[in-house]
Amino acid sequence: MKRPLHAHRLLFCALGLALFFAGCLKDEVKTTLRYAIYTPEYKTVKEIRENLTTLAPKDIESPGKIYVKGSYIFVGERNKGIHIIENSNPASPKNIGYLEIPYNADMAVKNQALYADMGPDLLGFDITDPQKAKLKTITESAFPFPIWKDENYKLVIRWSKRDTVIHSRTEAKSRNGEIWSPYFDGMAGPAGSAGTSGTYGTGGSMARFAATKERLFTVGHNNMGVFNITDDFKPAFVMRKELDRGIETIFPFGDHLFVGTVSGVKVFALTNPDNPAEIGSFGHIRRCDPVVTDGKHVFVTLRGGSNCGGNTSELQILTATTPTALQLVKSYPLDNPFGLAVDGNTLLVCDGSSGLKVYDITDVNAMKLLQQIKDIKPYDVIASGGLAIVSAVDGIYQYDYKKPAALKLLSSLKLKK
């Protein structure tokens, strides 16, 4: 069909005007704005559940919490999933797989069972072969969290990035920025000890999950959940204890749970693991508060300059021999502390922008700084048997600390630039 003559004329006119204005705009550009545009990619709850198995390994983009079980390290990708690292040789760790779990924040392991949260749900995986993890159970509505409407409810699983340049004819200061489309809708964007039976992994001091005594203990902002995991792959909800607001972390040790809050430390006895009983506490100024213990002392980092309140930061050391009567022994100033770990007479502190600090705590009243590694910004650390595994802003580092005054870097899994 032939296009009418007047249509051709209109087309030529339109093209001419477009070229004219393009030339004018090019001549009149005043500002160039560069943006990274992030667009969400969705999957339904059903699609996610059907594909909860080990995927091909992917680059670590935003490392969070870490968990160690045997020769494996499980690294949280903040609110997105869990990386599986084979670590039989700490000098040469291998990234072997990835579990894509939207809204995941925490994890714990008993025997060959990996427990992880996915929003309101508790997932149980068989990791007999971590490269072929199998979803065994879903405990729905296990946590206080907005409930999925149905299996067709769509969740953001990742954000795809596209760089773009915008030209403007108005005067403006050139700058870089980010555009999120649509706006944030709840999905985060770029951004242990032995029990009575079974074998348990070890979590860091920033953990909100703790597996011990045939139970999985979880803490939320104002509560503690208890799950019976006697049958590894059939966790059974037992109860949820209402606690004060501001609950942050949980650390199991022997017959007790040490819980860090924004206003102090709480100690729970596990005489009856189905109903942990608060037996002691110690109050401090409002701060963010990870906690670890060696049975003799409790070590607490208090971080200021955050949502937890205050501006000063410090390390507090409490007596722990009598959990019902925690008392302050000594305080030491810090700069920007997060997680920490203790092993024998060695204390490792993740002091954020000030790096990883290593202390001799032979005398807690005269603690000595042995070394400060300033070229990393650490978030959390797990230390045992001379091996320290550190989660940092730019990756996962492993150090030999058999000589605490001279840590030896064994390996680093750096973020992809």
Automatic annotation (TrEMBL):
<dbReference type="InterPro" id="IPR013211">
    <property type="entry name" value="LVIVD"/>
</dbReference>
<protein>
    <recommendedName>
        <fullName>LVIVD repeat-containing protein</fullName>
    </recommendedName>
</protein>
<dbReference type="Pfam" id="PF08309">
    <property type="entry name" value="LVIVD"/>
</dbReference>
<keyword id="KW-0732">Signal</keyword>
<feature type="signal peptide">
    <location>
        <begin position="1"/>
        <end position="22"/>
    </location>
</feature>
